[in-house]
Amino acid sequence: QMQKSKAQQQQQQQSKGRGGAKRGLASVHGGHRPLSHRPVDLFFVVSFVVMGTIAAFVDFVQALGAASDAVQSKVRQDWVNDFEHSYWPPAFMMDWFGRWCEEVDPLLMVNPLWYKIMALVSPFVYLPFYVAACYAFIKERNWIRTPGLIWASCLLYSMVVILAEELYGPFRSPQPLLMLPAYLPYVVVPMLLLWRLGAYKHPFGKRHRKTE
Fold first, then answer.
1. What burial class does residue 151 get, using C-beta atoms within 10 Å of its C-beta: 0-12 exposed, 13-18 middle, 19+ buried?
2. Rounded Cα gap, residues 193 and 55, in angstroms
3. Cα dihedral across residues 72, 68, 50, 142: positive or negative
4. H-helix or E-strand containing 68?
5. What DSSP designation does 124 have?
6. For 152, phi and psi rounded to 5 degrees?
7. Does this model's pTM top 0.90?
8. Nearest Cα to 48, choosing from 166, 201, 197?
9. Contact yes or no for 111/74 (Cβ under 8 A)
10. For residue 10, what pLDDT is reported?
């Protein structure tokens, strides 16, 4: 009887092992792990949501507001005039934008033409990417690899120019200790994404459709 019970236990363990292997194969062949079980990917999804929100507010304002000319720089009232008859962005957002520019980020207030051109990319190119990237990271889609690498490279290049102006240009920030944390995620996130997507050809693993 003891031998029979041991044999039954071994059979149960083997069946459990086969079941676990089948579940693992199901994950490889088309299933996907919950985002809550992938903290690194969850970090990227949250980052894309935050960056997309900023693109829809701050970058939209900068992209559609008038650029400063070579004679006179913009002031806070100029920004109010630019969006006086617009429903977007809301008034509280414009008030926050004006205070931030005056106290921390005068380069945004001035909005030189080169900066305006860079800002145009954010709400009209990067924002659709953020939406697609959120979907791809949640569903573990490998097609996001090439767009992600392009986005990360472009953003890092633009941040080199912007941070140089913010720290050493004629409209440098009077409070770099407040300015730098606001811009730092735009350096850290693309660098981490280059690592996440660039390390493997299939960052989420190879997936095959099930055959009946």
1. buried
2. 18
3. negative
4. none
5. I
6. -60, -40
7. no
8. 197
9. yes
10. 59
C-alpha pair distances (Å), 102 with each of 18, 91, 95, 184: 65, 17, 11, 20
- CB contact at 8 A, 68 and 112: yes
Place of tokens 């140089």: 164
What amino acid occupies position 3?
Answer: Q
Q: Cα(first)–Cα(last) distance of the chain, in Å? A: 42
Q: Are 203 and 142 in contact (CB under 8 A)?
A: yes
CA separation for the pair 67, 110 (Å, rounded):
7
pLDDT < 50: residue spans in the chain:
4, 18-29, 70-71, 209-212
In this prediction, residue 109 carries a pLDDT of 86
Closest CA to 180 of 156, 201, 203, 164: 164
Residue with tokens 């055959």: 211
